[in-house]
Amino acid sequence: MAEGYTSTAGRILARASREARLLGHTTTDTGHLVLSIAAEHSTPAAAVLRDLGVTEPALRAAARKYRPARAAVPRGRPVFTWRLRRVLRRAVELGPDRIGPEHLLLALVQEDRGTGARALASVGASAARVRTATRRLVAGDGAAD
Questions:
Q1: pLDDT in tens, 74-97
Q2: pTM of this prediction?
Q3: Which CATH number fits domain 7-139: 3.40.50.2000, 1.10.1780.10, 1.10.10.10, 3.30.750.24?
């Protein structure tokens, strides 16, 4: 993984790419990222989503509403969309030393037109609610590797 990311953040990004590929997508976007954050159960970022009432099945259904699965699995690794790359740049700005899942989540909800933030909002986790809960977590230094 790129220098500066925690091993957990690296796993989340790798999972996002796998998620995109399994859904038949040639690009990895913020919807895949939020699904991967939620699936990394042991992280405080996933706990924030659970505390806000976000369930993986509901989030997956919402994400697929914005980006339906395709029948064929593409060859090769899906590339990151420009919107996901912007989220990653924002996460770097948010992380003091190392970028963890909580920084990815905060950056993701700043990208309110992305599929990830839209999927969260559609399951009742508005950007404001996620931001407040995640900032509280970061301020308490609940960041996980």
A1: 778 889 999 999 999 999 998 678
A2: 0.90
A3: 1.10.1780.10
